[in-house]
């Protein structure tokens, strides 16, 4: 396993390069990039079809930087400098435990003040460069795909919060033992929490900019499937605990690599299992028994599902149907992988189920209803 990027580089090239990046975080970033690409392509395609339209906005140009803008930039610069300079001055600690450095109150006061002044000065100079004797109001055209920058920020912030909240609800016993540590930890994220909260934030931005809900949902389907597939690579490579149940069964095919059938996740970032003899460092655990590597199954299946969605997107004309199909695919995929995945079980009226099984079932039924709704309102949505 490769808990950090440094471990991966050492595996490939035999050289130890100390970098403060964990593998899971890198693939989360790549997942957002993949989603950004797919969303943007769909925005442009739907605009070309006349389903989405650019909007006109009035903006004022030529104004100097206001005091409030300078203060905001100064505060932002201070936070950057406070942590960045401290991290560079304590680079070994930053590499070994980036979470502690970033989430603690420790920092460099001088670094913060320097960057605060630098950011405020940069904003002042930039605004003065475009300052006019008399500021004027001009009309600009904003294309729907230009919303993606704003959407990605909202999706990242609210998606992370949702993923943390749902994960702590799922692991309530651990949460009540250390609420602050659980909330601030970079590990422990539930996909469906991120999907629900991040998706709600994106829909809010879309609605504010006159993008109809059903079109926004359809745009998101393929991109979210692709992003999920990419993100799960990070889960597998880092060994973050999202693996399956113990698997002692013989391989069904001799050509199948062991790591795709039953894997012990050595050096996993979750630090679960037994200590590895002779291992020195932070990540020195390996599972006592091999398990199903469910993250890699989801990588493969969800990428195939993305290709299917991407292939059929031109053929689907009814608003809402694409997202309904996505929900059904997502729900089925996650429900079946839960059958061989380690997870917390709830017991209601003698029925045992996981949080993901319950939500995936709801998503499948919601997708089915959305498809039926689209078919039923075919004529109504002809000019949607």
Automatic annotation (TrEMBL):
One of its GO terms (cellular component) is plasma membrane. The lineage of its organism: Bacteria, Pseudomonadati, Bacteroidota, Sphingobacteriia, Sphingobacteriales. Belongs to the Lgt family. Pfam families: LGT. GO terms for biological process: lipoprotein biosynthetic process. Keywords: Cell membrane, Lipoprotein, Membrane, Transferase, Transmembrane, Transmembrane helix. The chain crosses the membrane at residues 20-39, 101-122, 143-163, 183-206, 295-312, 318-337, 358-375. InterPro entries: Lgt. It comes from Pedobacter steynii. GO terms for molecular function: phosphatidylglycerol-prolipoprotein diacylglyceryl transferase activity. It comes from the Bacteria. This is Prolipoprotein diacylglyceryltransferase.
């Amino acid at each position: 396993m490769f808990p950090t990027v440094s471990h991966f580089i050492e595996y490939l090239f035999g050289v130890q390069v100390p970098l403060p990046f964990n593998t899971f975080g890198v693939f989360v970033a790549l997942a957002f990039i993949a989603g950004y690409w797919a969303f943007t392509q769909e925005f442009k395609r739907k605009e070309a079809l006349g389903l989405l339209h650019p909007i006109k906005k009035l903006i004022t140009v030529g104004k100097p930087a206001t005091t409030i803008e300078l203060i905001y930039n100064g505060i932002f610069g201070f936070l950057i400098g406070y942590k960045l300079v401290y991290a560079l001055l304590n680079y070994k600690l930053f590499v070994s435990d980036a979470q502690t450095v970033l989430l603690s109150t420790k920092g460099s006061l001088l670094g913060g003040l320097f960057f605060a002044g630098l950011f405020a000065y940069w904003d002042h100079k930039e605004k003065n460069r475009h300052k006019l004797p008399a500021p004027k109001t001009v009309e600009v055209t904003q294309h729907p795909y230009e919303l993606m920058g704003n959407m990605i920020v909202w999706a990242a912030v609210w998606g992370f919060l949702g993923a943390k909240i749902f994960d702590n609800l799922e692991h309530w016993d651990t949460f009540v033992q250390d609420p602050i540590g659980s909330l601030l930890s970079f590990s422990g994220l539930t996909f469906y929490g991120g999907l629900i909260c991040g998706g709600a934030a994106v829909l809010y931005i879309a609605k504010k900019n006159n993008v109809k809900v059903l079109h926004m949902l359809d745009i998101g389907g393929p991109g979210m499937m692709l992003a999920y597939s990419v993100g799960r690579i990070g889960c597998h490579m880092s060994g973050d605990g999202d693996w399956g149940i113990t698997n002692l069964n013989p391989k069904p095919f001799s050509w199948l690599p062991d790591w795709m059938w039953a894997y012990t996740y050595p050096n996993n970032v979750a630090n679960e299992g037994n200590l590895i003899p002779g291992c020195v460092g932070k990540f020195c655990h390996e599972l006592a028994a091999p398990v199903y590597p469910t993250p890699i199954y989801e990588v493969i299946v969800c990428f195939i599902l993305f290709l299917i969605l991407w292939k059929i997107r031109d053929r689907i004309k009814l608003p809402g149907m694409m997202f309904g199909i996505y929900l059904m695919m997502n729900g089925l995929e996650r429900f079946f992988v839960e059958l061989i995945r380690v997870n917390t079980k709830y017991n209601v009226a003698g029925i045992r189920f996981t949080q993901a099984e319950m939500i995936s079932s709801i998503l499948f039924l919601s997708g089915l209803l959305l498809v039926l709704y689209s078919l039923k309102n075919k004529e109504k949505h002809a000019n949607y």
